[in-house]
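Appendix B, record 7
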Amino acid sequence: MKNFSAGLKLAAIAFAVVLAGCETKPPPAQPAQPQAPIVTQAPSIVPGSAEDLRVNVGDTVHFDYNKYAILAPDMATLQRQAAWLAKYPSVRVTIEGHADERGTREYNLALGARRANAVKETLVSLGVSAGRVDTISYGKERPICTDSNESCWAQNRRGVTIIASGANS
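Structure tokens (predicted):
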């Protein structure tokens, strides 16, 4: 009987050792929930302001030499502008048309007007009321770069959306 009792004790000890050696698996990790990207905005920028439009949306599109067609890469900027204008329905804007230094003053004023109108027409086609958008041409009179080279001229061939006076600026 002593052998049976000793065998039972050994079996119990062996069972305890086996149990102690088993590790418990942590529960399977839950897949991470996709989170919307966090859009950060500089704390000093007032939503709906001219700076908000310029910094968070983009206020400028560019044009090819002697052209006024909206370029494909600039459509995204105009789509963001249209969405921003939908968010702030009381804001009125003016589209400034600009040209580079080449060409006569009269020709560049006309080209700047066509560029400003092209931006306006695109915004209107994206749902912005035509009554909220004015246009003006400055031709070559307000360059942002004054060097006489292609890189500089490309910067000056632009349409700029600005918040009209009296709006949230």
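Remarks on this record: The first helix runs from residue 2 to 21. The chain is about 45% helix and 15% strand.
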